[in-house]
């Protein structure tokens, strides 16, 4: 039961199967309710199947992104600074550890907030704060509505941030997280030099 509690799509499929079975039996007895229940059950199973396929596709894209970053440049510590080389696509990419989970991120000096999509935020244990109103953010994909939550701990090389406010945005086909200026502006310094991003934590 503990496994099923964390698998809402599987529960939806099981509920649909149960409804279809009950409906089939009632329909056999001449009840019109049975036909409605059977139809609802089939619809629930179909919806669950579609959502499972979509979720699997998104997980595949996320895994591919992780593998791509794992094979590329990583953050390294040089003295008191964290150094991130620029990637072949022109972005500064690394793997951060957030709430104990490793996640691929882009460091974007043009982003106001550190941002994760809803599915990624759930994996990281970051929930939207119901007391804070959503806000519109300008992104490369246009203006989107974001909610806000808090990351208990973020680690990137020698950088450690606690209780960091993050924006939670709707899921897209590009699940990579973004480290924004709300983290960078809290550092002692950051600079781009020779194709590398240098980050220094506040003393």
Characterise this structure.
It is a single chain. This protein is an alpha+beta fold and 203 residues long. It folds into two domains: 2-67; 72-200, Acid Proteases (Cathepsin D, subunit A, domain 1, Beta Barrel). It has five helices and eleven strands, in the order αααβββββαββββαββ. The strands form two sheets. Strands 3, 4, 5, 6, 7, 8 and 9 form a seven-stranded mixed sheet that branches. α2 (8-28) packs antiparallel against α3 (32-70). The radius of gyration is 22 Å and the shape is elongated.
Summarize the structure.
The chain has 203 residues and is α+β, with helices and mostly antiparallel strands.
> For the record, what CATH class of the largest domain applies?
Mainly Beta
Mean pLDDT: 80
Strand content range: 25-35%
Class of secondary structure makeup: alpha+beta
Task: Tell me about the largest β-sheet.
Answer: 7 strands, mixed
Distance between the ends:
48 Å
Tell me the name of the CATH homologous superfamily of the largest domain. Acid Proteases
Order of helices and strands: HHHEEEEEHEEEEHEE
CATH topology of the largest domain: Cathepsin D, subunit A, domain 1
Q: Could you say how many structural domains there are in total?
A: 2
- Overall, the morphology is elongated
**Helical run tally:** 5
